[in-house]
Amino acid sequence: MSRPPGIRALGLDPGSKRIGVAVSDLSGTIASPLVVVQRSRSKEHDLHEIADLAREEEAEVIVVGLPLNMDGSRGPAARAATGFAKALATLVDVPVEMHDERRTTVTADESMMAAGLDAVQRRQRVDKVAAAIMLQSWLDARANRLSS
Fold it and tell me: Could you give the residue ranges of the DSSP H alpha helices within the chain?
């Protein structure tokens, strides 16, 4: 089975206070936590900060986590993430996609607890780890789509 072509992807987990950011390796195989961007009072500023990060990381696609409800419906958080993605798409020259991120924050917190991190350490990292879990899911789904 041949491998799909690599892609440099930036993954975002936009929350109301912080935006978790993850990045893939150059082959588009492995996602890693990158940074947590603290939200400012200006959505415009936050969007430009993410757009700048995407350029610095030479992202070829940006994947924004879509926090669907467990039943698959879209609540306020999903609508906010969709609005964020649409606004970001106007500032960057690469595709902006959405990907289901249900339970990524819970999974991230559980994995950090298992690794022995205390509550303060987990709070500092959970958003970027959740972004990496979501981005890894997108990368795996992409590889499956391209190889079938």
Answer: 43-56, 76-89, 104-114, 119-147
